[in-house]
Structure formats: C-alpha cells, structure tokens
Amino acid sequence: MGGTNPYLKSTAPPRPTRSYKITFLPLGREVEVDPAELPYSRDGFAGSILEIALGHDIDIDHACGGVCACSTCHVIVREGLESCPEASDDELDQLDNAPGLTPWSRLACQAVPDGTRDVVIEIPDWNRNLVREDHP
Ligand code: FES
C-alpha cells in the first residue's frame, strides 16, 4: 500500500541532511540512515521512521499505508524526539486514537528525524508479535 491522503493538510517534513543511527527496541536492531539512500519505499513520508524500518525488514503495522489515516504505526521515541519536527494537527488527531499514548508517542509514518542526533524507537506491544514473526 502507500500513496497520499487527499484530506491531509500537512506537508512532508524535510528529509535528513546527515547520517544518523536509529535503534529499534525491543529488537535491539541498529540502522545507519544515509540520506543519500532515501527513500526506500512509498509507505510513509520519505525518511520517516516507518519507511526506514520497512526498508530494513523491520515490520511495523501500518494499516492505512502510511498516509496518516489510522494510528496503527504508533511508536514511542525514547531518545532523539527533538530531532523530529513537531507533530502536525493531523498526526495529533490520529494519535488521540492510539492505545498506550505517551508524551513521546509519534506516528512512525509521519515522524522524519532530521539526522541531528541518533534516535531510539520503541515498537509497542501490539506490533511486537508481528516483528517477532518476521525476525525470530
Ligand atoms: S500507517 Fe496509518 S497513520 Fe501511519
């Protein structure tokens, strides 16, 4: 799936301009993000946490295909949240429907780290079984 949401008012955040590292918990998988290799896929904004995860075979549920029309791609940014642009009103509206919401919650398809620091992402419980099935 993938594409754009015609009802979305927000525009794509800028892609990172420097390399940085994302760690996906609880997998402990570290991914080096090279801006020159983006985008990997069409699910989520280019350079989004979702796109980077999918591009490295780390599956995060994304029922709407990364167009900010659900909350299934909810992740918690444990470190480096300040390197992600603030959530748009559209993202905040969808996050309101996410279970287990925290002050560090973001939609993986909408959050695009700018590369100014490394980022640590926690994939919540409801996505972990999916991840484990793909990566025993
Ligand atoms: S995949 Fe639906 S909002 Fe991110």
Give a quick rundown of the structure.
With 136 residues, the chain is α+β, with helices and mostly antiparallel strands. It has helices at residues 49-55, 89-95, 125-134; strands at 20-25, 29-33, 74-79, 105-107, 119-122. It has three helices and five strands, in the order ββαβαββα.
What does this protein structure show overall?
The protein is an alpha+beta fold and 136 residues long. Strands 2-1-5-3-4 form a five-stranded mixed beta sheet. The chain contains three helices and five strands. It is globular. Strand 1 (20-25) and strand 2 form a beta hairpin. It starts with 19 loop residues before the first strand and ends with a helix. 18% of the residues lie in helices and 18% in strands. FE2/S2 (inorganic) cluster binds at residues 62-64, 66, 68-70, 72-73, 94, 107, 109. FE2/S2 (inorganic) cluster binds next to loops.
